[in-house]
Amino acid sequence: MSAVTDAPSKNDLRAAALARRLALSDAERRAAATAIAARGLPFGLPENAIVSGYAPIRGELDPLPLMQALAARGTRLALPAVEQQGRPLRFHAWKPGDPMVRSPLGIDEPRREAPELIPDILLVPLAAFDALGHRIGYGAGYYDCTLESLRAVRRVITVGLAFAVQQIAAVPAAAHDVALDYVLTERETLNFRSR
């Protein structure tokens, strides 16, 4: 008689993936960010496209090298700002070197005086992801809410940035979870557009 085991919860999967991410050395982190920047986005950018990145926290893959490469080609950049829980993120113009402000959540954000922009492409941080493009964030739902809001009015391409060690077999996705279009790791580009 075999024992029946429950599938791991999102919290368990998140904790395990974050532990693997935190175990990476600084050199591995820099190499991964550099590799992704060198490879670039896996699609051509429309003229005047706006790409939103993020300020990395808790060992997230640093998008700055990729954002600097995009800015060098003339791409307009934005960064997200949290307005309040349960509400979509707002995006403000930003370029490398612009001053940032620390939010109440301890995250560096663009100045609120910077023009508000609507991004065409979102670079999305994550805790874990699977081979279907589902992601696990930190549980607050900011990106799910934001993507639902943005996609209700326009086409937005989502690109998760992660270390390969963050990939898991399957994310227990709920109906409100929004799958990504791509995930870029230091090893590969995963394309989920055909699903």
Descriptive overview:
The structure is a single chain. The protein is an alpha/beta fold and 195 residues long. The chain has one domain: Rossmann fold, CATH 3.40.50.10420. Helices cover 24% and strands 21% of the residues. The chain has four helices and twelve strands. It has helices at 10-22, 26-39, 64-72, 142-151; strands at 50-52, 76-81, 90-93, 100-102, 108-110, 116-117, 121-124, 128-129, 135-136, 157-161, 182-184, 189-191. The strands form three sheets. An eight-stranded mixed beta sheet has the order 6-3-2-1-7-10-11-12. A two-stranded antiparallel ribbon has the order 4-5. Strand 8 and strand 9 (135-136) form a beta hairpin. Helix 2 (26-39) runs parallel beside helix 3 (64-72). The N and C termini lie far apart (38 Å). Belongs to the 5-formyltetrahydrofolate cyclo-ligase family. It catalyses: (6S)-5-formyl-5,6,7,8-tetrahydrofolate + ATP = (6R)-5,10-methenyltetrahydrofolate + ADP + phosphate. It is an enzyme of class 6 (ligase).
